[in-house]
Amino acid sequence: MLKKTLPIITLVSSLALSGCVTPGGGMISTGNNATAARGAAGGATSMNANESLERCDAPLGTLAVDDGRGKEWFASFGQTTQVTSIEPLIRLAVQQSNCFVITSIGNTRTDSRISSITERQRNSGEFRAGSNQHAGQRVAADYFLEPSIIIGNESTGGLAAGVGGLLKGAAGVLAGALESKQSVVTMTLFDIRSGVQLSISEGNATATNYGAALGALGGRAAGGLGGYSRTPEGKATVAAFMDAYNNMVISLKNYQAQEVRGGLGRGGQLKVGQ
Asked: What CA–CA distance (Å, rounded) separates 94 from 36?
């Protein structure tokens, strides 16, 4: 049992020591895999995407992604994780997958700004002739994707007590402060024209907060891990949404419409007795 705990302590200790490499200074690097959603997308071209991301041979339709800001869970989630928005990373993963073409509709702020710019360019009379600003060019969304957080930053427990109890001294304090939290999310896909739910998926991920452990060491050792450990819960939530999206894409690749005898919304098959 003790042998199983040593890799955890070795990892955390090595991260702590990295804070002593540049005393009084810092280091900036780019291109790191900060979250499970990474890289770039341009049209159907994807670059440096997560290798585990499910992909489609051709888009299934146009998509509006809910920005989540109006949801009851968003305010407390943002305060806890310091995550300001989840929608851009979902949009990134969706476009990289090539399963949908994304529209601005769904993000109220973005759609409002684009509409305002369009209105000004079309009606102000200040822009050049031939700017092609006539009506009828906006693309409608076929589907609406709604992300939701079901369990955010729920402590899984066990790790701190189990590991910390086996070790003594500073190592025991360090291991005892390790904290793991789980995020469970869902994604729901609706057909906009009919309002029918087409797909729903669950995703989950767990993050270990090394920052809490290194805080037990105090001083510069903990400070050296600053950027590494500030938002592990937020990163777990992004990873959970990636998991949910992958699950959804797999189901959509095998999609079969639900048929009701007599047609949808025409009384159904469960009849009321006389």
From this structure: 13
